[in-house]
Design a protein that fits this description.
heterodimer; A: 159 residues; mainly alpha; 0% strand; B: 212 residues; 7 helices; transmembrane helix (chain A); Translocase of inner mitochondrial membrane 17 homolog B (yeast) (chain A); membrane (chain A); transmembrane (chain A); protein transmembrane transporter activity (chain A)
């Protein structure tokens, strides 16, 4: 894929929710498979069955919590884009902070603030890496010399 | 263009006739030499082969690396996210119904609300996870089949649905696998049929209604 083209805003939420679920389910699945494999009685049959059971039970749950995070983040992001009328990294950072706060809402204000800070810092790191990557890949497309500084061509023969 | 050389002879003689007062019009010899490649049925002024004008398909310009329709991988995230959200909505409503039914004997108080909210979130999460993982398995199998066969059609859909059903109920032993596979086969066949309904009913009905 040459470019990663994102959907326009309402459908972006569904896409991000699905992407987050996939990440959580596959990552969580790998983790849980290894964990179930290790925490099982000796014997390859027990180990494989334990790994498979752990994946079957826990991977959807991990995927689900990732999906909630992703969907909520994308919803707040789209809302901010709509309100502010522009797309920039500040939207993502604010969305990360608000998502962290909302998802910790049942645990009280102090935990909400802590969760918001974690979410904001995580998104700031991600956006910072993205900006650095953009600058680095743009460097290779810069011209070697400014065309206006070249010596003027003399008008030779021919039209 | 090759009819200009013959035509210019006629123009010159015509202009000569205007200025010189000679015979008007083109001579028959000049007219016989004009080639008729530009005389298309659409218009004699169009010097274009009419074969190039027939356009019955959409002609889009595609950038490098793009194909006309979205592949399964690009649709996958949307499918999975959509299933998750549908499951969450359905589970939330189901949880609301169950919560209200189970706390019918309680008065409207904070414990009752907390109970109902708990039921809503648990059921919503459970259904979202189930539907999301079904969609994930279906998409993964669909992508695998598409890449393995190199072609994209409804056979991929049906096969992916069947395998998903089989894998999903694999904890129930051989009977569970068979039942899950049958359910998957039925649902994905119904979906494939729904997608191709117009195509199937049109081809079996009267002759095509194209005008040419």
């Amino acid at each position: 894929m040459e470019e990663y083209i994102r959907e326009p805003c309402p459908w972006r939420i569904v896409d991000d929710c699905g992407g987050a679920f996939t990440m959580g389910a596959i990552g969580g699945g790998v983790f849980q498979a290894v964990k179930g494999f290790r925490n099982a009685p000796a014997g390859i049959g027990y180990r494989l069955r334990s790994g498979a059971n752990a994946v079957r039970v826990r991977a959807p749950q991990i995927g689900g919590s990732f999906a909630v995070w992703g969907g909520l983040f994308s919803t707040i992001d789209c809302g901010l884009v709509r309100i502010r009328g522009k797309e920039d990294p500040w939207n993502s950072i604010t969305s990360g902070a608000m998502t962290g706060a909302i998802l910790a809402a049942r645990s009280g204000p102090l935990v909400m603030v802590g969760s918001a800070m974690m979410g904001g810092i995580l998104l700031a790191l991600i956006e910072g890496v993205g900006i650095l990557l953009t600058r680095y890949t743009a460097q290779q497309f810069q011209n070697a010399e400014d065309p206006s500084q070249l010596p003027p061509k003399d008008r030779g023969l021919g039209l | 263009m090759d009819n200009n050389s013959q035509g210019s002879g006629g123009v010159k003689s015509g202009l000569g006739s205007l200025f010189g007062g000679g015979s008007p019009g083109y001579s028959n010899n000049d007219l016989a030499g004009v080639s008729l490649t530009g005389m298309s049925p659409l218009s004699p002024y169009l010097n274009v082969d009419p074969r190039y004008l027939a356009q019955d398909t959409d002609e889009f310009i595609l950038p490098t690396g793009a194909n006309k329709t979205r592949g399964r991988f690009e649709l996958a995230f949307f499918t999975i996210g959509g299933s998750c959200m549908t499951g969450a909505t359905f589970g939330a409503f189901n949880g609301l119904r169950m919560g209200i039914k189970e706390t019918r004997d309680m008065a409207w108080s904070k414990p009752r609300n907390v109970q109902i909210i708990n039921m809503v979130t648990r059921q919503g999460a459970s259904w979202a996870n189930t539907l999301g993982s079904v969609a994930l398995l279906y998409s993964a199998f669909g992508v695998v089949f598409e890449k393995a066969r190199g072609a994209e059609d409804d056979l991929n859909t049906v096969a992916a649905g069947t395998l998903t059903g089989m894998l999903f109920k694999s904890a129930g032993g051989l009977k569970g696998v068979a039942r899950g596979g049958l359910v998957g086969l039925a649902l994905s066949s119904a979906y494939a049929l729904y997608n191709n309904w117009d195509h199937i009913t049109n081809s079996s009905s009267s002759a095509s209604s194209r005008l040419y």
